[in-house]
Design goal:
Blueprint (H helix, E strand, L loop, with lengths): L1 H12 L10 H26 L4 E3 L4 E3 L7 H12 L3 H14 L10 H8 L44 E2 L8 E2 L4 H6 L25 E3 H5 L2 H11 L3 H15 L10 E3 L5 E3 L1 E2 L6 H13 L3 H17 L1 E2 L2 E2 L1 E3 L5 E3 L1 E3 L5 H7 L3 H18 L5 E3 L4 E2 L11 H13 L3 H17 E2 L2 E2 L2 E3 L4 E2 L6 H13 L15 E2 L6 E2 L5 E2 L5 E2 L1 H25 L17 H4 L19 H10 L8
Antiparallel strand pairs: 1-2, 3-4, 5-6, 6-7, 8-11, 9-10, 11-12, 13-14, 14-15, 16-17, 18-19, 20-21, 22-23
The chain binds 2-acetamido-2-deoxy-beta-D-glucopyranose (3 copies).
Length: about 575
C-alpha cells in the first residue's frame, strides 16, 4: 500500500532510523517528564498568579485576561485527573467552588446568568468530590468582523459545566440559562449571533456577522446538554444552525469564514480548514461519532470532497475563494494542525499521514509552529511568527499514533517536549514564543497550555490511558440493561474536555424512563385529565428532572459551575485579524 511505503520512507528521512522504537520504560520516563512540566507551570501559577486568570511567566505574576475567573485553574482541572492527581483535583474543585465568584457584571458572562437564572442556587449545587472536567462550547470571532469590542467577554456559551467522575465514567451538565444562551439563536436563519449579553439578550447594535465556527460548534455540548437534561431545545438549536449553514454552501460545495446570520450572505468568502472554520468541520465529525449520526458525517464527507478538490495541494491545505475555488492565501496556519487527527477519525489515514509530515517539517524548521507559514516561500509570514504553545499538532500526533502505532509520532512528541523545555521554559512557567525565528518570548502562558497541550502530550505517551478506551471497559450501569458508563469511545470537545458517549446514551434513556414514569403518575393522580404523554420529547427540565440518579436512591443536585470560552476564542484573537486586514 502506498501509505505504508511512504511511512517507511519518511522514517528513513527523519533520521530517527527505521528501527525507531520507544520502550515501555522510556515511555514511562517521558510521562514523568510531562508531569514535571505540568507541575512546574501549575505550581508557578498557583504560587504567583492565582487567583488571576493567567500566569505571566516572565514577570512571575498574574493577570486577568477574561474576567477573573481563575481561568488557568479551571482549565487545568481535568488535566489533574488525566495525570492521576485526584487529591489535588478535589482540593482545587472545592477551592474554586468556595472562592470563585461567577456572579459578576461582565458582558456576555455566562456565569452571571447561569447563577441568577437559578435564583442563586449555588449552595444547593455544591459539587462533591466526584466531579471533574469542565466543559464549554467554544465560539469564536474575536477579532474578526463579527467581534464587537464592547462585548469582549466570552461569546455565547453554554452556561454550565459538565462533570465526569474520577473514574471518568459519569457525565452531568447543569442546565443553561435558556433565555441567555438560546437568545443568540433567535435569528431569521437559526444561525446564532457571535456575541450576546446573556442577561439582556442580543444587543440591538450587535452585528449579525458570525464566523462559521461560531455557528457550527455547538452540536457536541448542546446535544449532551439536551440528552442529559431531557430539554430538547439545545440540540434542536444546534442542529438548526448546522442545517442553515449547510444550505448556504456555494455551488462548488464550500463555505466562507464569516456569514451574516440574518441575511444568510457570506461576508468573508475565503475558505480553508483553519481560523474561522476549523471547529465546524471538527464538530461534524465528532458529532457524528458521539451521536452515531450519519447525516452529520455525510455533510462532512461532502465538504471534504470539495476541500480535497479545491484547497489541497501536495497535502497542504490552502485558502481559496468559496465560489470560484481560486487560491487566495497559500498559507498553513498552526490552527489547521488538528486536521490530520480529524482525517484519521474518518479513516483517511494516508492523507492524514502525509499532511502530518508536512506540518512536522515546519515544526522541525522552527522548533514550533508559527501562526502562519507561507507554503510557497517556505517561511514565516510577517506579524504571524509566534507560537503560543498551541496543542493542535500534538493532538493530531495522538490520534495518528493511536491509529497507526507508528513511533514517528512519539518522536514528534519528544521533539515537542524538548523544544518547549528549551525555548519557552522560564523560572516560573512556560512562555508563549513571540517569534519562532529568534525564539524571543512573550510574557504570557495561555490557559490552553495546561488544558490541552500538556493533556494531549500525556495521552500520546500513555496509550493504555482509560481515555483511549475503545469500548471494552465500563464499570457500572444506570437505568437498566445495555447502559454502561465509562466504556470508552470518549470524544474530546475542541477544548480537549472528554465526553463519554455512554453517559449520553444512559442519561437520555434515563430521562425518557423518568418522563414516562412521571406521565403515568400524573395520569393516575389526575384521572379525569387526558395527559399528553410524549416519551420521545421529555418536557423541559425542572429541578426534579435535572438531577440524575448516581446510584439507585442517590441524588445529585445540579452543579452550577460553568466556565468561559476563552481558549478557543483566544486562539482566534490573533488570527481573526487576517480577515479584516485590508492588506
Ligand atoms: C498533586 O499535586 C499537588 C500540587 O501540585 C502536589 O503537591 C502533589 O504531590 C501531587 N500528587 C501527585 C500524586 O502527583
Ligand atoms: C456591556 O455592553 C454594553 C453595550 O456595549 C455597555 O453599555 C455596558 O456598559 C457593558 N457592561 C459592562 C459591565 O461592561
Ligand atoms: C473538482 O474540481 C473541478 C474543477 O477544478 C470540477 O470540475 C469538479 O466537478 C470538482 N469535483 C468535485 C467532486 O468537487
Amino acid at each position: 500500500m502506498r501509505g505504508g511505503w511512504l511511512v517507511v520512507l519518511w522514517l528513513g528521512l527523519l533520521g530517527g532510523g527505521s528501527g525507531l522504537r520507544f520502550t515501555d520504560h522510556e515511555m514511562e520516563g517521558i510521562r514523568q517528564r510531562i508531569k514535571s512540566m505540568f507541575y512546574h507551570a501549575y505550581n508557578s501559577y498557583l504560587d504567583n498568579a492565582y487567583p488571576y486568570d493567567e500566569l505571566r511567566p516572565l514577570t512571575c505574576d498574574g493577570q486577568d485576561t477574561w474576567g477573573s475567573f481563575s481561568l488557568t485553574l479551571i482549565d487545568a482541572l481535568d488535566t489533574l485527573l488525566v495525570l492521576g492527581n485526584n487529591t489535588e483535583f478535589q482540593r482545587v474543585a472545592t477551592l474554586l467552588q468556595d472562592t470563585v465568584d461567577f456572579n459578576m457584571d461582565v458582558n456576555a458572562s455566562v456565569f452571571e446568568t447561569n447563577i441568577r437564572g437559578r435564583g442563586g442556587g449555588r449552595e444547593g449545587g455544591r459539587p462533591t468530590s466526584e466531579w471533574w472536567g469542565v466543559c464549554c462550547p467554544p465560539t469564536c470571532c474575536l477579532g474578526g468582523p463579527g467581534w464587537s469590542q464592547s462585548l469582549a467577554g466570552p461569546a455565547p456559551a453554554l452556561s454550565s459545566g459538565w462533570l465526569l467522575t474520577s473514574q471518568g465514567n459519569y457525565c452531568l451538565m447543569s442546565d443553561a440559562n435558556q433565555r441567555g444562551v438560546l437568545a443568540a439563536f433567535q435569528t431569521s436563519s437559526g444561525m446564532p449571533y457571535g456575541t450576546v449579553n446573556l442577561l439582556r439578550g442580543v444587543s440591538p447594535t450587535e452585528t449579525a456577522v458570525t464566523c462559521t465556527a461560531g455557528v457550527g460548534t455547538f452540536i457536541l455540548e448542546f446535544s449532551a446538554l439536551s440528552r442529559l437534561t431531557g430539554d430538547q431545545q439545545f440540540e434542536r438549536a444546534a442542529r438548526h444552525a448546522l442545517q442553515a449553514l449547510w444550505s448556504t454552501r456555494s455551488e462548488i460545495g464550500l463555505v466562507g469564514n464569516h456569514i451574516d446570520v440574518q441575511s444568510r450572505k457570506w461576508v468573508a468568502q475565503d475558505t480553508g480548514i483553519g481560523a474561522g472554520v476549523d471547529s465546524y468541520l471538527e464538530y461534524l465529525v465528532k458529532g457524528s461519532i458521539l451521536l452515531q449520526d450519519q447525516e452529520l458525517l455525510n455533510m462532512f464527507l461532502e465538504y471534504d470532497r470539495a476541500i480535497q478538490n479545491y484547497t489541497r495541494f501536495d497535502d497542504w491545505y490552502l485558502w481559496v475563494q468559496m465560489h470560484k475555488g481560486t487560491v487566495t492565501m497559500p498559507v498553513f496556519q498552526s490552527l489547521e494542525a488538528f486536521w490530520p487527527g480529524l482525517q484519521s477519525l474518518v479513516g483517511d489515514l494516508d492523507g492524514a499521514i502525509r499532511t502530518f509530515q508536512n506540518y512536522y517539517s515546519v515544526w522541525r524548521q522552527f522548533g514550533g509552529l508559527p501562526e502562519f507559514y507561507s507554503i510557497t516561500q517556505g517561511y514565516t509570514v510577517d506579524k504571524r511568527e509566534g507560537y503560543p504553545l498551541r496543542p493542535e499538532l500534538i493532538e493530531s500526533a495522538m490520534y495518528l499514533f493511536r491509529a497507526t502505532g507508528d513511533h514517528t509520532y512519539l518522536q514528534f512528541g519528544l521533539d515537542a517536549i524538548e523544544s518547549i523545555e528549551k525555548i519557552s521554559k522560564t523560572p516560573c512557567g512556560y512562555a508563549s514564543v513571540k517569534d519562532v525565528r529568534d525564539h524571543k518570548l512573550d510574557n504570557r502562558m495561555e490557559s490552553f497550555f495546561l488544558a490541552e497541550t500538556i493533556k494531549y502530550l500525556y495521552l500520546l505517551f500513555d496509550p493504555a490511558h482509560f481515555l483511549h478506551g475503545a469500548g471494552e471497559g465500563g464499570d457500572w450501569e444506570v437505568g437498566g440493561e445495555g447502559c454502561v458508563l465509562g466504556a470508552g469511545g470518549y470524544i474530546f470537545n475542541t477544548e480537549a474536555h472528554p465526553l463519554d458517549p455512554g453517559a449520553l446514551h444512559c442519561c437520555s434513556h434515563h430521562a425518557r424512563e423518568r418522563q414516562e414514569l412521571q406521565d403515568i403518575l400524573l395520569s393516575l393522580s389526575q384521572p379525569s385529565q387526558n395527559t399528553n404523554s410524549q416519551s420521545e420529547t421529555p418536557t423541559q427540565a425542572d429541578s426534579q428532572s435535572e438531577s440524575i440518579a448516581l446510584k439507585p436512591g442517590e441524588r445529585k443536585t445540579t452543579p452550577p459551575l460553568s466556565c468561559p470560552v476563552q481558549p478557543f476564542s483566544a486562539r482566534l484573537a490573533v488570527l481573526g485579524q487576517v480577515f479584516t486586514d485590508p492588506t
